[in-house]
Amino acid sequence: MKAIRLHARGGPESLRFEDAPTPRPGPGEVLVRVRAAAVTLTELLWVTTWTTRDGGPRPLPVIPGHEFSGGVAALGEGVTAVGVGEAVYGMNDWFGDGAQAEYCLARPADVARKPASVDHAHAAVTPISALTAWQGLFERARLAAGQHVLIHGGGPEAWAASPSSSPAGGESG
């Protein structure tokens, strides 16, 4: 497969578009044929780009980009939440290779079925904005049933926060 890979710490000059091994889904993993992937400007500065889960240095090269949209290409053992051929979008493990490639791996809990009314490009840029809105409302502000939320502004987090407040019983306006 083709992928964008980082071969050294640095900025865009350290990115290369090249051949890379196609990942194979292990137990509990989904292989996604990537149709669109988002770019997070600060990702090259994140600890998870350069370290393993236990804090050691991550082996290079690294595939960046962890928001994606595409189709399920294969399933690892035990995966039943999605099926081969389904259109999905989501995020994958920050400590693993990302989605700036033709294929990426993800856990079933980290993907959702892509609505037919949303194209792949728009679906791929949704997860981080939605996660940021969720974290702001529920982890930081501790939104609870019966509380009201005033959302002003027009960024992607504001868009994602509006529907996010409803499951907790909050009201947005």
Element order: H for helix, E for strand: EEEHEEEEHHEHE
How much helix, percentage-wise, in residues?
10-25%
- Indicate the low-confidence ranges by residue numbers: none
- The largest sheet has its strands arranged as 6-3-4-5-7
Q: Mind summarizing the main beta sheet?
A: 5 strands, antiparallel
Count the E strands.
Answer: 9
First and last CA, distance? 46 Å
Rg over CA atoms: 17 Å
Please state the overall shape, judged from the principal axes of the Cα atoms. Answer: globular
Number of helices: 4
CATH level 1 name of the largest domain = Alpha Beta
The percent range for strand residues is 15-25%
Description:
The structure is a single chain. The protein is α+β, with helices and mostly antiparallel strands and 173 residues long. It has two domains: 2-118, Quinone Oxidoreductase, Chain A, domain 1 (Alpha-Beta Complex); 126-172, no CATH class. The chain has four helices and nine strands; from the N terminus they run βββαββββααβαβ. It has helices spanning 47-50, 120-124, 126-140, 156-164, and strands spanning 2-6, 15-19, 30-37, 67-75, 87-91, 103-106, 111-113, 148-149, 171-172. The strands form three sheets. Strands 6-3-4-5-7 form a five-stranded antiparallel beta sheet. A two-stranded antiparallel ribbon has the order 1-2. Helix 3 (126-140) crosses helix 4. The longest helix is centred in the C-terminal third of the chain and has 15 residues, at 126-140.
